[in-house]
Amino acid sequence: MKAKVLRLLKANFGEYISGQRMSQMLQVSRTAIWKAVSVLRAEGYVITSLPRRGYCLLALPDLLTPLEIGEDLTTAILGQQIYHAQQIDSTNSWARQLALANAAEGTLVVAESQNGGRGRLGRQWSSPQGGIWLSLILRPQLPVYQVQLMTLLTAVVVVETTKMVAGLAAGIKWPNDVLVNGKKLAGILTEISADMDCLRFLLVGVGINANVALSSLPVEIQQLATSIVAETKEPISRRAWVQHFLKLYEQEYLKVQRDGFADILQRWRQYALTLGQVVAVQSGERTISGKAVDINEQGALLIKTTDGIKTVWAGDVL
Ligand code: BT5
What we know:
Elements: H1 2-11, H2 19-26, H3 30-42, E1 46-50, E2 54-59, H4 66-70, E3 82-88, H5 91-100, E4 108-114, E5 132-138, H6 147-166, E6 171-173, E7 177-180, E8 183-195, E9 198-208, H7 219-222, H8 228-232, H9 238-259, H10 262-271, E10 278-283, E11 286-295, E12 301-305, E13 308-312, E14 316-317
The structure holds biotinyl-5-AMP (BT5).
């Protein structure tokens, strides 16, 4: 009912539509309309009302609710189920619980802020209001050894979505950092549940500092991070970003399962900031130094060292 009432109000944005007309169109009582309007107001929709004239929608909240994202979303799989919270510890942790309880492929989990956002290796991910903090539950037909490639795919989709929605060109630092002018704009956390070599589900967590004021990040991160609004001086529609992201992600996700990752790897190379650079990569206890020459078919970084080419599966480019 809430969604139907909202659709009518949006169709008449800035104009009054009477409660009686809405109740006739939706075949419900005027009290039901009034209740739906009250719930929408509580969610941040600015709706005025006047006796005899009815209701008028004046402003939408900048929220990533199912109502906002789900409306006119054109995907077939991703985001068909949406879980939204004002605040949660971590969308990846919430997504794991949902996946264990059999949540459908493509379920989207999103929060306005996180108070226990996670990076890799137990690192913290700062997630204030204004950012986009989301996780997808996927159940792909892929062998476990191709999971790293899903991180690369995600980075490509984040870069291309940001270009499309904000006109901002970002690059990728292997394996999972999306950077603008050397500062971190977005991070990706891919987690799995698997039996031996059989993937049960994959959780793709994406955090992007969309409309985040850099002053709302911890001081020690402020110098290393950037946001879309800090770069372009224009806040974006976070809803549009998420909708484009889901659409492009679905397209690429179906394609890799059908045709493999060659095309994604090619696009990743195009955005890569790491390739061709002399780097030091921290991988567990080891630091490997040399020239990053390429990635292999599984997304591992190939480094030309004085001892020949080394393959680095996981780590941080320092
Ligand atoms: C990452 O880890 O970059 C993965 C971040 C994934 C976050 C998303 S948000 C939705 C989902 N739910 C979660 O709980 N997580 C995912 P890593 O490569 O380990 O980088 C972590 C490092 O990035 C930290 O140690 C900080 O230095 C830096 N950092 C933390 N918060 C940041 C922010 N908001 N912007 C830029 N850099 C940040």
